Amino acid sequence: ITVCFWFKCSPSIINMLCEYTDNTNINNGLYVDINEFSKGQIILASLGNNGYNLVETNLKAYNDGKWHHFAGVIDRRINNSEQQFIYIDGVPDYSIRSGYGKINTSNFPANHAMYIGSRATTSFKYVGLMDDFQFYTKALSIENIRRIMIGMHPL
Predict the structure, then answer these.
(1) Which residue among 72, 115, 134, 148 is least crowded, i.e. fewest CB within 10 A of its CB?
(2) Are 60 and 67 in contact (CB under 8 A)?
(3) For residue 86, what pLDDT is reported?
């Protein structure tokens, strides 16, 4: 699964960039937010009935009021386990925060709704700008993410 978009914001409290879920408890889904644990850092979280996984951007703050390209990738092809990656402006920027288990991607996207700028529960409203939101049901390579970032289609 890959989700990517351009964003520009300067919030100091938690803001939900997007959430993809089958219910308001995000029992099987993912979300992307900013400022959840560290000021300006972005979280990519995948959640399922069997656990959760979180990755966050490293030390740089992205609530700087400048445009940035975000790409979050969840890839289950690597060692038969869930791997998550964050790319900001076409560059890998992530570290594992915590987690265990796998999300159930077998029913993506049929039973899910995408919420852009808030959670399914309407909390943590995003304050900022977003553009060119794209969602793929497969894990894209860094080369394809960079193609999308410059306005081309993935191969």
Answers:
(1) 134
(2) no
(3) 92
Please, what's the largest Cα pairwise distance for the chain? 38
Q: Long-range contact list for 31-34, CB < 8 A, 24+ apart?
A: 31/119, 32/3, 32/70, 32/72, 33/124, 34/9, 34/62, 34/63
Closest by CA to 128, choosing from 31, 8, 20, 19, is 8
Cα atoms in the 13 Å half-sphere on the side-chain side of 113: 12
In what helix (H) or strand (E) does residue 55 lie, and over which residues does it extend?
strand 51-56
Estimate the share of the chain in helix, then strand, then coil, as percent rounded to the nearest 5. Answer: 5, 45, 50
For the full predicted model, state whether its pTM sits above 0.90: no
- For residue range 88-111, what is the model confidence (pLDDT) as tens digits? 999 998 776 656 555 555 555 566
Of 2-16, 91-105, 125-139, the least confident = 91-105
